[in-house]
Design goal:
The structure is a single chain. The chain has 2 domains: 2-75, Nucleotidyltransferase, domain 5, CATH 3.30.420.40; 81-225, Nucleotidyltransferase, domain 5, CATH 3.30.420.40. It is built from 6 helices and 13 strands. It has helices at residues 56-69, 97-109, 143-153, 172-195, 207-211, 224-237, and strands at 2-7, 11-18, 21-29, 47-52, 72-76, 81-82, 85-86, 114-119, 122-128, 134-141, 199-203, 219-220, 244-247. α2 packs across α6 (224-237) and α3 packs across α4 (172-195).
């Protein structure tokens, strides 16, 4: 059984997979624990596949855990291709490994062109054509990051973020909540119209915040990066396309 670990900017998501199929999942907030690896399952784990967009120190903590448990650790990085999926970046490893894993999962889920939106600390979009080629994407701040930027760069100090977001707010907190949320919604709605994919996939910690307010129907896939890691690990095990850096 493989333990899959998605190390993000604020939290760690993990999953257990058998033969490329995700069986169980969980999450840990990294900021709350100096050594968050104690929250990871150990029983029956034969190998760990990890994708990290955080500082190297976070991956080093996982490496120490793997060494202590005597489990092989594979640090996954983006590659030129995986199965029928072709990376669209001129330098494939410049594509964030979390985005690459999400693309692998999206392409493996079905046929046709697909647009993947990951709404978290950053909001990213990635396009995969019906021919399996990654056509590129974009990166912008997520909703919470936009709000944090306003706090850092201005004298605005919102005390809470209301749940309901009218077009015309009557207080500062509501105005910030509505403006930042609608910025994300406008981008996602425009991408759905302009790119017109066959499928729309939505993932990330802020996906529930935006999903109900979008003008198009997006399929929510909360564990898309872990799904991609599961597919990737299975392909590597079969000797297929993939790139990992092994740490013993």
């Amino acid at each position: 059984m493989n333990l899959l670990v998605d190390i993000g900017n604020t939290r760690v998501k993990w999953g257990l997979a058998r033969e490329g199929v995700l069986a169980d999942t969980g999450a840990v907030w990294r900021g709350e624990l100096a050594d968050w690896t104690g929250q990871l399952p150990r029983a029956g784990v034969e190998a760990i596949y990890a994708a990290s967009v955080a500082h190297d120190s976070a991956a080093d903590v996982l490496a120490a855990h793997a060494a202590h448990c005597g489990i092989a650790l594979h640090r996954v990085v983006s590659a030129a291709r995986s199965g029928a999926l072709v990376n669209g970046y001129a330098d494939p490893q410049q594509l964030g490994v979390d985005r690459w894993m999400a693309c692998i999962a999206a392409q493996a889920r079905g046929e046709g062109a697909v647009l993947v939106a990951d709404v978290g600390t950053a909001l990213t979009l990635d396009w995969i054509g019906a021919d399996g080629r990654h056509g590129g994407g974009l990166i912008t701040p997520g909703v919470s990051s936009m709000r944090s930027a306003l706090r850092a760069a201005t004298q605005l100090r919102p005390t809470h973020m209301p749940d309901e977001h009218a077009w015309l707010a009557r207080d500062t907190d509501s105005a910030i909540a509505a403006g930042t949320l609608r910025s994300a919604l406008a981008l996602l709605d425009a991408a759905a119209v302009d790119l017109a994919p066959d499928r729309l996939l939505l993932t990330g910690g802020e996906a529930p915040l935006v999903a109900a307010r979008l003008s198009h129907v997006w399929q929510i896939a909360p564990h898309l990066v872990l799904e991609g890691l599961a597919v990737h690990a299975e392909r590597v095990g079969r000797g297929g396309h993939g790139l990992v850096q092994a740490s013993e």
